[in-house]
């Protein structure tokens, strides 16, 4: 596994997106397996507040309506997401490669 001391100075930090996913969300978690080589993603919740968590972790993170969040992920990760209060919405995920 590659250790990254400072993600901002890594050569892959400014790469263009690789795979992209559009996920329909509801009130229960929906999962998306990321590409095995993916190390960074952006999440964008379109029109609805959402919760997301990484892999099998128990900690939920909040994504405000129309907010875009960039996070570094371990290789072979899965993103789990659900809406905060509405019945349907969309989450856009873009992968970035190192």
In brief:
This protein is mainly beta.
Give descriptors for this structure:
4-stranded antiparallel beta sheet, Jelly Rolls, 0% helix, mainly beta, 51% strand
Q: Could you explain how this protein is built, in words?
A:
By secondary structure, this protein is an all-beta fold. The protein has a single domain (23-97), classed as Jelly Rolls, CATH 2.60.120. Helix content is 0%, strand content 51%. It has strands at residues 17-25, 30-33, 38-46, 50-54, 61-63, 68-72, 78-83, 89-97. A hairpin with a 6-residue loop joins β4 and β5 (61-63). The protein is globular and about 35 Å long. The two termini are 12 Å apart. The relative contact order is 0.38. The mean pLDDT is 84.
For the sheet with most strands, the description reads: 4 strands, antiparallel
Number of helices: 0
Q: N- to C-terminal separation?
A: 12 Å
- Low-pLDDT ranges: none
The tally of strands reads 8
CATH architecture: Sandwich
Explain the layout of strands and helices.
Elements: E1 17-25, E2 30-33, E3 38-46, E4 50-54, E5 61-63, E6 68-72, E7 78-83, E8 89-97
């Amino acid at each position: 596994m590659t250790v990254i001391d400072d993600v901002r100075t890594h050569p892959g930090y400014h790469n263009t997106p690789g795979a992209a996913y559009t996920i329909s969300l509801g009130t229960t978690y929906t999962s998306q397996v990321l590409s095995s080589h993916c190390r960074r993603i952006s999440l964008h919740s379109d029109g609805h507040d959402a919760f997301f968590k990484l892999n099998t972790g128990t900690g939920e993170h909040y994504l405000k309506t129309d907010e875009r969040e960039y996070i570094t992920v371990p290789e072979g990760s899965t993103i789990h997401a659900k809406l905060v209060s509405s019945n349907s919405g969309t989450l856009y995920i873009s992968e970035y490669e190192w």
